Amino acid sequence: MSKLRPDLQIIADNISPNARVLDIGCGDGALMAALRDQKQVDARGLEIDPANVASAVSKGLSVVQGDADTDLSAYPDASFDYAILSQTLQTTHRPDQIVNELLRIGKQAFVSFPNFAHWRVRMSLLIGGRMPVTRLLPQTWYDTPNIHHVTIDDFRALVRDGELKQEGQWFLTGDKQTGRGLANLLAEHAVFLLRR
Amino acid sequence: MSEDTRFGLDKKVRLLGPLPLDSGGELAPVDLAYETYGDLNADASNAVLICHALTMDQYVASKHPLTGKGGWWTDMVGPGKPVDTDRHFVICANVIGSCMGSSGPATINPATEKPWGMDFPVLTIADMVRAQALLLDHLGIERLHAVIGGSMGGMQAINWTTLYPDRVKSAVIVASAARHSAQNIAFHEVGRQAIMADPRWRGGSYYADDDPPSSGLAVARMAAHITYLSEAGLTEKFGRRLQDRDSKTFGFDADFQVESYLRHQGISFVDRFDANSYLYITRAMDYFDLAEAHGGTLANAFKGSKTRFCLISFDTDWLYPTSESRTIVHALNAAGAAASFVELSSAFGHDSFLLANPEMNRIVDGFLKAGESL
After folding, report:
1. What CATH homologous superfamily does A6-115+149-195 map to?
2. A114: preceding bond cis by omega (within 30 degrees)
3. What's the CATH code, domain B184-283?
4. Residues 156..175 of A with a Cβ closer than 8 Å to B: which?
5. Which residue from B339, B343, B369 is facing A60, i.e. has the nearest CB?
6. pLDDT tens by residue, B339-359
7. B44, B164, B197, B295: which has the fewest Cβ within 10 Å?
8. What ipTM does the predicted assembly reach?
9. Residue B156: is its pLDDT beyond 60?
10. Residue of chain B whose alpha carbon sits nearest to that of A59
11. Under an 8 A CB cutoff, do B341 and A58 touch?
């Protein structure tokens, strides 16, 4: 079993066995395969890139090619225990609506995203005066799929304004978990578990 | 197991039926011509049914007796292929209504002892599937490891999952749809009218003097063949290049390569296909609408389905475009069925599903193998 990306490992650790899971933006299905093999999870995936879909399907995973912006409406209400959106929120056209969709389809939702208020991002803009290009946000401004950059505090505000319940939050710097203190400044990456 | 070492075996069976038909009538007896490859295992759990498209036949991986050409899907079916004849017991039956040995308009009507012609009952895709189920009963196969089909074969495959949900573990549906679109019905109607406008068609009674409506059938094939390709594919293959000449003739000969190619497609088709079968099978496809049979909501067709689904479409296929596959996928998602779907890139339009495509093979291979460990 190859090692999972750290944010995916956090999600995997916090999903109960035998759950029904929809992984939106599942990539090549690494998390789904781990959940299936380690926790007997019934996992389904949605992924936009056909090469990734092909890789996932050839591993025996149930993944459909589609777009979170247009293809979530087909899934019935509360049809999954968890809906997962990892490192995809910032690429969607309407992240607020997507979060609502996650909590319509899933009883709970995991959302992970790179934090645009991390100090290195801030410094890059402040000192360099250029759009930040970092390890987690490696593309330049003109070819990035990340059209809605978001900070941890922005996301917390979205949760608050949407009257959603926060069931868990985890923060990462490098590949290590860090504390909640000054997370908006110090964390590169955040994982939230939400419920309505 | 079998001592016959031929690949394919060219089998034929007459089943008593009767086979009840959607039109209200019934068919009895039911002749089915089929090929099998590989051996059925002890618990009959390795059977894979391949469903063929409109003008294809049971010779999916073996030589066609009339054309002498190899099987039509040898990139997908054979030893070591995704449908692995070393691992699977592969069955491919000529659909009823067709003309390669199964009951159809050219076979003998037991009531008159003459060819059926247009007295043959009008069929549906579901009728074809029910006939295949009779064959599986005959072969002692209760449950299919997989049913696989492209185009009209995909319609049969998906109809298998709704008519016999407990008999299908996995279904692979390639370049297909859950209903025939108005555009597809329209193209079929052009083909049928071409056949029926040929004076030699004679209301379908042309078998006695062996003088079939070949011109009409050839035109039908030419028109249909265009729909199997893509503009990019035609441009790449032929462009505006002239056929065996340096300049235009200012006449109506096949000046252009694409004309010559289409004429060849038409002429060679009539040597292996029956015009009445073309009428009956295109009609069956036109009548296909899986949602209609389930209260107008496609998702109802898959309610509670335990079958694993794998759908594949091609980006240049305008006959069975990706949107048709996506409609099925949305219905499967709504029903909570285990679905996989990918749109592959290929320049060759609808015909892409018949051509070598490593990505398609990788997907089908992984999908089938994963099903074996369940």
Report:
1. Vaccinia Virus protein VP39 (3.40.50.150)
2. no
3. 1.10.1740.110
4. none
5. B369
6. 999 999 999 999 999 999 999
7. B295
8. 0.90
9. yes
10. B366
11. no
